[in-house]
Amino acid sequence: MIGVKYCKGDLKMYYKSCRWINSGIEFRTNSLRLCCYGYLQGRETEYQTTIKENYHGELIDWNEIFKIKDKLKQMHKNGEYLDACKNCIYLSERNWEEENYINHFTFNHWTKCNCNCIYCYTAKNKKEFNSYKEYSLYPIIKDMFKNNIIKHTEEACVIFGGGEPTILRDFDKIIDIFLKNGCNNIRINSSGIKYSKAVENGLKQGAVSMVISVDAGTQETYERIKQVKTYKKVWENIRKYAKAGKELLKVKFILFPPVNDNYYEIDKWFEEVIKNEVKSVSLSVEQDWFNSHQRNFPPKIYEQISYIKKRAEELNLDLEIYCEALAVLRECKL
Q1: Residue 17 contacts by C-beta under 8 Å, 6 or more apart in sequence?
Q2: Mean pLDDT (whole number) for 137-145
Q3: Of 14, 59, 74, 253, which one has the greatest count of Cβ atoms within 10 A?
């Protein structure tokens, strides 16, 4: 097999693969997927990451899921990849365990939110997305722990995407069961509008990290993007979260041409970050814009991403760069 080396003394093999293919799962509103990153290679191939259609919260036959994963792992051992995986930034060569388990979760199974971002994937058809009913994940996660499907490792992670997590049914119970079972890498993407004591406690324990996407440094631009009048409230909540766990809170800026892609807005955002005692920030690029400009990114976006990197360094802020922004940097350097 191409690129495969057996590791002496354990059940590991060296080849090029990714953590999501090997041990991850994404819960969506009506399906299960391997990951949520298939769109990076183009929307036409994203469907390839689906492993179960018409899923609405039923208990899962994990033998069926692991058979699919085993087939994909065998492809990777042979140096073959789905179109949705080719050139993905999450592929890496390393020693991969042969044991089957799940330790990477993305929860995207609901769309309800307490703001109405104009760039949200639900914005184009609110009527359809508002008709989706969320299903309860707690019984599924409880069953997974009971049957030893979940394995805690240093790389294990739980990511909340979807709509707004803090208004999700069983949110506190889901957080609690992961914490009780030793998971200390729970990542929550939030609007920051509703303050959560569960999140605050998780930040204090060092087990929960939170990303609040503000995307603006002025109230006017914030209200244009979010379509709610909660700018001051969000920054007040950010300040409270920062006091609970500065190291684990990030404030995010999604570059969205032509709405907030200007240096004035970026500088004002940095001012708010410093004023509210935030120590870490995140950067991304709006997905639809990203998809429509793949392989043809304008220099302006590259320059603004570079500027944000530089300003974060000057202000002694930790900066996390999301895959979309990383792709822009990579393509513009070629």
Answers
A1: 73, 76, 91, 92, 94, 96
A2: 95
A3: 253
